[in-house]
Structure formats: C-alpha cells, structure tokens
Amino acid sequence: MPSFEIIVFVIVFTALAFDYINGFHDTANAVATSVSTRAIAPNHAVILAATMNFIGALSGTAVAKTIGSDIANPSGITQSVILAALVSAILWNLLTWYYGIPSSSSHALIGGVIGAVVAGQGFSSLKLAGIQKIIFVLIASPIAGLIVGYFVMTALWWISRNSTPGRVNRRFLRLQVLAATAAAFSHGSNDAQKSMGIITMALFSAGMIPVFEVPKWTIIACAMAMALGTAVGGWKIIRTMGGRIVKLEPVNGFAADLSSSFVIYGASMFGMPVSTTHVVSSCIMGVGSAKRVSAVRWGVAKQIVSAWILTIPASAAVAALSYTVIHFLLGV
How does this protein lie in the membrane (predicted)? Predict the structure, then answer.
C-alpha cells in the first residue's frame, strides 16, 4: 500500500486534473455565443475566457466550503472515497466531451461524491439537508437562467425598438465581448471552487490542516488548472452551445452572456454550486424564446436536458464502482 502522503498527493493531482478537464469541457460556456456571432475570433475568445476564469477563481471560497462540507462530514471521509468521486467525475466529463454533449461537471462531481460516500460509508454519512439544498439550487438555477434570459432579451428588444436589426447587431457586436468577459469571470468564480473544496476535504480528513479552510496554494493551483484547461478549448461543445440550440445574433449573444453572468455570480456570492453549462444553456433558450418559441431547437434542448437528468445517477454509479476498485487496491 502506498504511503498516506502519496495518496493525498494523488488526490490533489487528480482534483487539479478534474479542474483542467472542467476548463476545456466548459470553455463553451463563456465563448460559444461570441464565437458563433463572430464578435471575437476563436483564439482570442479562448484566451479571454482563460484569463477571466483565472481571475474569477480567485474571487472567493464560499462554493468550495459548500462542496467540501455540506454533502458529507469531511472528517469521516476516507481517501478512497474522495479519489473515487474524482475519477467518476473525470470519466463522465471525458465521455460527454467526446460526444460533444454539454453536460454538467458540477452534477458529475456531486453525483460522484454521493455515490462514493454511499459505497464506502453508507447513506448515514450523507448530509441530507446539505444535499437537498445543493440539488434545489442545481434545479432552480437553469429555471432562473431561462427566466432572466427571456426578460433581458425582451428588455433589449424594447430598448432597440426604433432601430433597424442591422444597427442593433452592430451595436451589440462589441458589447458582446464585455458580456463574454463577465460570463467567463462568473464561470471561474463558481466552477474552480469545486476542486478547491475537494482538495480541502482531502487535506482535512487526512489531518493535514486543523480546520476546514481552503489553503492559499489550493486557490492558486485550482485557478491555474482551470485557466490552462480553458486555454485548450472545447470546440465540440462550442458548436452545440453556439448554434445548435438557437440561431444567435450579436444582441442575442449579449443577452445570453449577461444573463448567465448574473445568475452564476449571484450563486457564487451565496456559496451555491451551480452548473454553468445548465445556466448558459437555459439562458440561450430563454433568449431564443423571447424572439419566438419556435426559434429554439427544442429537439436539441431535449437531448441536453436528458443528459442533465442522467448525470448525477450515472456518475454516482461509476463512483461506487470506482470506490470498490480503489479501496481494494489502496486499502484506505
């Protein structure tokens, strides 16, 4: 059996790998609309997203504390449980990325933690109140995105009612870059913190830190991993997010990015983990619905929602299987 310190090191490395994969898996969340409307060149969009993801990741640790302490008691979690949760989330992310499905990294990680905890320590080790709160927010946030996207787009149509469509789109072409910047910042503020919470859980359960506080080096490491992953780009998912849900014009892209940044950063301020993929997708649907309901390609939207529903139970099942193998190999 490897030493305890080596196991913790492997967990930290795996959590950073998850953050990196999350970066290229969810790059589309911030840049897809800007790329699809040609507001910004793809290479420049990815660099912008990577930079703002890094800055956003440094903005707080409230989400990290929720992930690390509200699903299960971190002091009673074994290293095999944590590693199994990460392995499950990574496998699900890679699978959905390969097929170009904009699924939720957040759902995959949360499902992975739940499945691994149940397999390793039973249902009694779960914090049901915390899980209920997290799942409520995961469900409510895309609904909020749909509503906010609809009303933001409706307001923009009203403000621009006396302008020609061409003039409106020329005006919002540049503004869309600012909205994409805000969306990338909010993405970093929420998603990068999830790995911070997992690493802190591993350190606390191993007795390497006295209290559940996210170390500074963890914040920097996760921010860098997210930014590097974002810089790689997720072009398959960009094609789905940027054009398959609804045909976007600059004013639509601006409304979608602005709406998603409001919802995601609002959740981050309250320490609530949300799926940035869910929120951005629902904001795009809301924006499209403001034009006309038929503008949204609901068949594609249905496929995406199906992946959303499947993610938590699927990743939980993979985590339970992963725990069995890891516990057998490591004995911890």
Answer: Multi-pass membrane protein
Q: How far is CA 213 from CA 63, 74, 134, 276, 322, in A?
A: 12, 12, 20, 24, 28
Between CA 211 and CA 34 the distance in angstroms is: 42
By three-state DSSP, how is residue 72 classified? strand
DSSP structure class, residue 126: B
Beta-carbon-side half-sphere exposure of residue 317 (alpha carbons within 13 Å)? 4
For the purposes of burial, counting CB atoms within 10 Å of the CB of 295, is it exposed (0-12), middle (13-18) or buried (19 or more)?
middle
Overall size of the chain counted in residues = 332
Closest CA to 183 of 154, 210, 145: 145
User: How far, in Å, CA of 153 to CA of 283, rounded?
Assistant: 10
Is there a contact between 7 and 218 (Cβ–Cβ < 8 Å)?
Answer: no
Series of mean pLDDT values for 10-residue runs along the chain (332 residues):
79 93 74 79 82 92 92 87 93 78 80 94 91 90 92 93 85 89 92 93 91 95 92 63 62 91 95 87 86 68 71 92 89 69
Tokens of 55: 């800055």
Q: Which helix (H) or strand (E) holds 264?
A: helix 250-269
CA atoms within 13 Å, Cβ hemisphere of 107: 30
DSSP code of residue 208: S
- pTM of the predicted protein model: 0.87
Specify the 3-state DSSP secondary structure of 14.
Answer: helix
Residues 247-272 have pLDDT tens digits of 678 888 899 999 999 999 999 999 99
